[in-house]
Design goal:
This is MFS transporter. Pfam families: MFS_3 (PF05977). It comes from Arthrobacter ginkgonis. With about 450 residues, this protein is an all-alpha fold. The chain folds into two domains: about 25-215, Up-down Bundle (Growth Hormone, Chain: A); about 225-435, Up-down Bundle (Growth Hormone, Chain: A), CATH 1.20.1250. The chain has helices at about 20-25, 30-50, 50-65, 65-95, 95-120, 125-155, 160-185, 190-210, 225-240, 240-255, 260-270, 275-300, 305-325, 330-360, 365-395, 395-415, 430-440. It is globular.
Length: about 450
């Protein structure tokens, strides 16, 4: 699987120092299959995010209703939440690569149907929204398997690099996709945006067919129907307190950290008095922080424990929000938003890596699926909570409160004794099934 000479995971030559730094943080790209998959993913996801701008634009064009535009997010998120546990079970029970291929083909055909509908003159908003929901169904199916598949493409010693680079391609895609959509729509029209989005899925499908990696299956240890499988996974998360703490912190970020991405609009208008370009600059600061921090985040994993990396990132996130809650300076806010972008990638990539390092192989897909569900559900809840506080006390007070809580929670998890503690993020891999399989083979 690797282009480099084979070594035991984490092994280093006795006469060579442990490598760190920018180049070493990109080490997952040394592995042929990961590099192919990563390139295909960034091209496809960039195309996929073209519709995040194109769909709201056509819905508003057809209806003139901001409420209908708001419904786009509902049709994008709800089916994914429903499909998350199903996708997790499929990722544990079936060949992950085949599950991803099936789901990507489903998204491609659904997007192509959107192109055909628009090209045929269909201007019914719910026809477009239901196609958005169908795309979300396949997306929810693929996400747990996609996240778990990274573990199949790189050795455990390079997992942090692999997960961080996967997060990086997601952030690049989110930044580039809407920008490309705007250029396409302005020059040749919405129908071409839909077509380009549909065709972009060919990149990752080609990459998946080129891979040599055969995912290791422990499906014989996955028992019962999908409901029972996910109940078992929920019980497993509660038993493995390190995984529980990781998911708890991801929910904290979703509830109190994620709303800043939408509140930049309110900040720009009500606090800093900037125009649309200024609001765009605030959003760009978040994206740039995430993009440029990826090598730093991957490199720090070689020097810090997971509890330090995640705890420190969440605290920095909270400090950034606190600064924004207190400052009236547009420039200071920009700097704080860059720091938040850095912290967001550091926290979420490290949380995903910590879960993958700790979880038993036969639970990986379902645990990641359930984590996706609760994390995604925290978005609308956090948005409603922070919006309510902003209406009552002002947007800066709302953001300040979120920042303080995000600083305090990790400190409590460090200081308070018990089983739910930050140090549990350093728990070792649950390798009971691997050892059982090895003993059977012997």
């Amino acid at each position: 699987m690797s282009l480099s000479s084979p070594k035991a995971p984490g092994a280093t030559a006795p006469d060579q120092p442990v490598q760190t730094g920018f180049i070493h943080s990109l080490r997952a790209l040394k592995h042929r299959d990961f590099a192919i998959f990563w390139i295909g993913a960034i091209l496809t996801n960039t195309g996929k995010f073209i519709t995040t701008l194109a769909v709201p634009m056509v819905i508003y064009q057809m209806t003139g209703s901001a409420t209908m535009v708001g419904l786009v997010a509902t049709f994008q998120y709800v089916p994914g939440v429903i499909m998350g546990p199903i996708g997790g079970s499929l990722a544990d029970k079936l060949n992950r690569r085949k599950v991803i291929i099936f789901a990507q083909i489903g998204m491609m055909l659904s997007t192509f149907a959107m192109f055909l509908a628009w090209n045929a003159g269909v201007r019914e908003p719910y026809a477009i929204l239901w196609l958005v929901a169908l795309i979300a169904v396949f997306n929810g199916m693929t996400l747990p398997g996609w996240a778990a598949f990274i573990n199949d493409l790189v050795p455990r010693s390079d997992l942090m690099s692999g997960v961080t680079l996967n997060s990086l391609q997601g952030n690049i895609s989110k930044a580039m996709g809407p920008a490309i959509a705007g250029a396409i729509i302005a020059s040749v029209g919405v129908n071409w945006a839909f077509l380009c989005s549909a065709l972009s899925f060919l990149f990752v499908l080609t990459a998946l067919f080129l891979l040599r990696t055969v995912p290791i299956s422990f499906s014989s240890h996955v028992q019962g129907n999908i409901l029972k499988q996910n109940i078992d996974a929920g019980a497993y998360i509660w038993l493995k307190k390190g995984i529980f703490v990781a998911i708890l912190l991801s929910v904290l970020i979703g509830l109190l950290g994620n709303p800043i991405y939408s509140l930049t609009v309110v900040l720009g208008k009500d606090v800093y008095g900037v125009d649309a370009g200024g609001v765009g600059a605030l959003s760009l600061a978040l994206g740039l922080g995430a993009i440029f921090s990826a090598p730093l985040v991957a490199g720090l994993h070689d020097r810090l424990k997971m509890s330090q990396m995640i705890g420190g990132s969440v605290v920095v996130y909270g400090l950034g929000l606190t600064v924004i809650g207190l400052t009236d300076s547009f420039v200071v806010a920009m700097v704080a938003l860059v720091a938040i972008g850095v912290a967001a990638l550091g926290a979420l990539a490290s949380i995903n890596t910590a879960i993958q390092l700790m979880v038993a192989t036969h639970f990986r897909g379902r645990v990641l699926g359930l984590r996706h569900v609760v994390y995604t559900l925290s978005f609308p809840v956090g948005g409603l909570l922070t919006g309510w506080l902003a209406d009552l006390h002002g947007v800066q007070t709302s953001i300040l409160a979120c920042g303080i809580v995000m600083i305090v929670v990790p400190i409590i998890l460090y200081a308070v004794p018990g089983s739910v503690r930050m140090v549990r993020l350093n728990d070792p891999h649950d390798d009971q099934i691997e050892r059982l399989e090895a003993s059977r083979a012997a």
